[in-house]
């Protein structure tokens, strides 16, 4: 596909449906980027609601991200898994679980769990913070790189669920109460919430906000 | 004004940077990227509707053994214990972690099922050129569903759990696991064979012809 002219569609009165990609003409937009009265409110092709940009993108992303940051603390302090061996309960946090894997000589699995449960949530939260900062401060450099960061965040998000799925399997399989029992700990809820909140935050961030500032003044 | 906006414009816009682009026909096997931000714009597929229809039908059949049979099991003191997709959800729920249980249920059972059902309904209607008034809603739902169906992440969870258990006990793998891996492959192939642009064009054409008749 070739460049029509080096401008954004919206600045030329054209609006892309975020469901089906259909292009419609808008006469004008309100300050909150919804089509103004007299223009189409629903896409003529897919009947979905039309928005020039995702509604309240910045505020929604910021609110979801703050909640994720707060829940990240209990997710790491409290035990995510409690292994009871011969009646002695042994709580594991996310970090101590990884340490146990390293001590057990399972380095590749420890690396995998470290990436999915520690690195990915941190990259997501820091990356989204940088993106929000860039929108707020109207950065005009490295926009392509920032968009790549956005794509990375959107792609890796779901892989943090690894720990939760692994625990759900262990909990149901290791339940012989005489020998050994695995229970999910309170951090599991907090960590699952962090994963969902960061995924929702990434979904509500509109990367076009980064490019909208380009050459605006 | 309404008539004018019904006519398709010869433009496309990048979903990630809103750069205005001239719409061009793209050959199968070529990936079109946005020249400004590098976003993947379009990747046409061969026989997208036929493949989606066949794959979603296969997926629906595979869902039966995946739901009924255990995935992995261990033997402790001549006492076999199995884990299935449902038992993981049930154990978390019994423990009182209903939030986590709900999330695992949605990501590993409900959303993959919904994804297969919607793909089957949409591609079936397109294949037999039948119109339905909910076709657009199904397609929009399907697009938003993609990242919440997490069978590939679940597979990695099974692998990590197995490695952890293998050091202590003997594992046994059932037919359920084979069916699960087959379902995973079907879902991954389904995502890659779905040509959204083509689907939307076909849905649009079907809706328009239905409107003409009435
Ligand atoms: Zn649309
Ligand atoms: Zn772009």
Labels describing this entry:
heterodimer, A: 217 residues, alpha+beta, 6 strands, 51% helix, elongated, B: 214 residues, mainly alpha, three-stranded antiparallel β-sheet, two-stranded antiparallel sheet, 12% strand, disordered N terminus
What is the fold's blueprint, element by element?
The complex is a heterodimer of chains A (217) and B (214).
Chain A: E1 2-8, E2 14-16, E3 23-25, H1 57-77, E4 81-85, E5 88-92, H2 94-103, H3 107-136, H4 143-156, H5 162-173, E6 180-184, H6 186-204, H7 208-212
Helix pairs in contact in A: 1-3, 1-6, 2-3, 3-4, 3-6
Chain B: H1 2-6, E1 11-13, E2 19-22, E3 32-33, E4 40-42, H2 48-68, E5 72-76, E6 79-83, H3 85-94, H4 98-127, H5 135-145, H6 151-166, E7 171-173, H7 175-193, H8 196-213
Antiparallel strand pairs in B: 1-2, 3-4, 5-6, 5-7
Bound molecules: zinc ion (2 copies).
One zinc ion binds at residues 14, 16-17, 19, 34, 36-37, 39 of chain B.
